[in-house]
Specification:
Length: 135
């Protein structure tokens, strides 16, 4: 919802565009109860990203969701040919990295009682290390 602004950081394979909007419907994968896929019969899904840094093998991106589908960031980044590093489920296997390179790093909302903006930010040093290690 627009009441809560969440931002994510991810590390994906390849060199992403400077910024982009990904709009592609996401639905269940008929062969799996876990994975999702891009399918015309899926639900509308919209993901916005900007590239914070990139080199020939990987990109570090900030991501904002406009919809909240299961595995949305992971599915959309696979769809544009940049799977998340370490994400075995969505073609991002890496021999040394056994975790999907994705984290929510910022949450912003208006406090329901005090009506003040609250912003919580945590660092993403682990993802920066992953980004730098993939060369």
């Amino acid at each position: 919802s627009d009441l809560i602004d969440k931002r994510y950081i991810c590390v994906c394979y390849g060199k992403t565009k400077e910024q982009s909007m990904i709009e592609a419907p996401i639905g269940r994968n008929k062969d799996s109860i876990i994975t999702r896929c891009i399918t015309p019969s899926g639900k509308h899904a919209k993901t916005e990203y900007k590239t914070l840094s990139s080199h020939h093998s990987a990109s570090l991106c900030e991501v904002k969701l406009h919809t909240g589908r299961t595995h949305q960031i992971r599915v959309h980044f696979k769809h544009i040919g940049h799977p998340l590093i370490g994400d075995d489920l969505y073609d991002g296997f890496h021999p040394r990295i056994q975790t999907q390179s994705l984290q929510c790093y910022k949450v912003k909302f208006i406090h329901p009682i005090y009506n003040k903006e609250i912003e919580i930010i945590i660092d993403y040093k682990n993802l920066e290390k992953i980004y730098q290690s993939v060369n």
